Predict the 3D structure of the following.
Amino acid sequence: MSFQDKPTYPYYTYTLKNGIRLVYRYTPSQVAHCGVTIDVGSRDEKVQENGMAHFIEHCIFKGTKKRHSYQILSRIDGVGGELNAYTTKEETCLYATFLNNYYERVIELFYDILFNSIFPAKELEKEKSVIIDEINSYEDSPADLIFDAFERLVFGNTGLGRMILGTPKKVQGFTSEQVKDFIDKNYCTNLIVISTVGNIDFNKWVRICEKYFSLVPEHLANRKRHTKYNYKPQHIEEKRDTYQAHLMVGNIAYSYKNKNKVAFSLLNNILGSNAMNSALNMHIRERYGFTYALESSYTAYCDSGIFQVYAGTDEKYIDKTLQLIIKEMESFANKRLTQSSLARAKEQLKGQIAIQYDSNQNEMLSIGKALLNYDRIDDIKETYREIDQVTAVDVLKVANEIFVKDNLSTIKYI
């Protein structure tokens, strides 16, 4: 049975009186996935708060008015489930995987740690050491650090340009009062979505969510994100004591609200996705053997986006690798895709999306983010329809806007 032939179940949404939104899809699996996604990330921090959103993600597990940290960590793990969280530039997410009969346990715990955490000073000091070690470890990895360096190059000293982890000095200075103040100001009820994919009746799930999350007072945000930056291409070269050289080349790109987003997502997938038949992999890595790692990525934010190609190579090949990458970009800007090439690319992207959605956890996280970003949920058939509508002219157009050589920035770690 193909993916398209499998039984599908509709998405249902509901809004609590305080503005918190719910999104649900039934699945017959005995394993459920549930998460709370908050439309608050590192870009929403003030300069002096850099690293705060990520710090909170760590510290919400450290104690509430009625639970110690051990009780929090054991509440889901103790029944065979998993509890986790992450922070990005634009959202914070707390999520869990568990057996279906523990839904109320999970929802109650989410409410408790998000809105009743006390952030004891002693526990915060412990977590500061953990995060500072994380920052230092990250800065010891040029292959990771170059991505943040490139965002800083493109977006400057803005929320989008600063590192999610913050700096050791900033993190060391955080207090319980500052943490609580950040939550009070930013965890607004209309910026919160609870999503689930699981085997529970929708009305029962709504009642459980209402039982706990309706206790949160209505606090509506009237926020419009807009980063002021003046992107100018830059070229940076740094000497680093590493065996491998690292290269990044890219440009500013489209926001997720831009009509060109789908066409450029398709083009990025053709150019340098993690598929072995990407243009970069076939025409550079396989043909010349210059690079070990070579891929392109496109990240769309609410008001902007970033496109970048990363290569890990030997220092003696770094300039040649850069020339070949730019040559590949120029080929897409100079020549329209054939209909057969475009059709194959569409099928590949649709297949990748289907495989991603075959994971109920991925789907749960995706629908929570989608409701935050678009205030709607498109099923996979609608996503396919948007991909199918992309023309070769659309791909050529976005290639000529984003792959302009004079607009590209580069970073080299050698």
The longest helix spans residues 121-139.
